[in-house]
């Protein structure tokens, strides 16, 4: 395999790896041998340092018992928030790491709607977004009396903001990989008298984000995708420093109280970002995430973006002709409007193609209906990995290997 049918030579790809300023990060991840991992957009790979960090925390639990809470466990949400802040263009004190995205959206919806006494009560969710964002908005509206609306996919946001108090938008769409202009969109929503909660699940760690510079006031995102925090690692929540003292978030728990250990009967919200905590968190999973965020502090996000675009372009260049010949639709946006993934649709065979690739050690993922996603994570993928993965894709499709009936059987998690 020195050349694939598209004429992209392995030596040209190896030259890209030799000139890659991020190449050294790959050694700091524990990747299984023989696996080409293109699913870091769903669950990031394990930083080698995570294992020792978790082990150390287990030892700390064993040796220090409850004293551990005063040895860094209790402060972890804001300490990790401060580590993460530069990766998303936030300042110290603007980010906490807590709960999951679903709960964090609920908290922000209540916090924002609670500040409004007027007529505007509608919550707008983005059609075609990751479903939990809409589900939790619907749940919030049922108990708050706010009206829930969907923004139709591919429609003009400006035409749907009448009477809207808050809109929940993804910066990068999880299916298509389409990137929104966060600055222009934030400005538009504010000009209509509404607020926007940005969901950065598919952009944090995937591309440079300037939350402060964009004028964003509220954002959430997860840490187990591009940020490599580990399965179930907590989400983050950002509130601009000028908007942290505006009332209550509705999941008012003891860790978000102004004095959690005063054990007052009445809730008094903390007047900083810790207000968005709820209750007790896992010191163990925070340890894994801290190891990862410590690594991110060394990363140049502009280099991440450049490599991400170059890798997705390489993957598409290696496969260009094959989509048309095999009825696969390439819905990947143009590179300037792309997150860090390639999105392909084959409603008949997409699932089985992904299964056949997994059987070969090439891990991508599948989302209904018909969507094959391949995520590009510049810290632990080389250009050679991408070239090899494309070669496998070509072989699976051209050989008809995916027709094996066993590859069409669905598991519980796809
Ligand atoms: C992955 C993802 C989520 C996950 O939400 P959790 O509550 O953290 O499980 C939410 N929104 C988007 C856009 C996602 O991509």
From TrEMBL:
Pathway where it operates: Amino-acid degradation; L-kynurenine degradation; L-alanine and anthranilate from L-kynurenine: step 1/1; Cofactor biosynthesis; NAD(+) biosynthesis; quinolinate from L-kynurenine: step 2/3
Modification type N6-(pyridoxal phosphate)lysine: residues: 225
Superkingdom per UniProt: Bacteria
Record-listed E.C. numbers: 3.7.1.3
Keyword Hydrolase found: yes
Keywords, sorted A to Z: Hydrolase, Pyridine nucleotide biosynthesis, Pyridoxal phosphate
Family classification: Belongs to the kynureninase family.
Task of the protein: Catalyzes the cleavage of L-kynurenine (L-Kyn) and L-3-hydroxykynurenine (L-3OHKyn) into anthranilic acid (AA) and 3-hydroxyanthranilic acid (3-OHAA), respectively.
The protein's assembly and partners: Homodimer.
Protein name: Kynureninase
Source organism: Halomonas casei
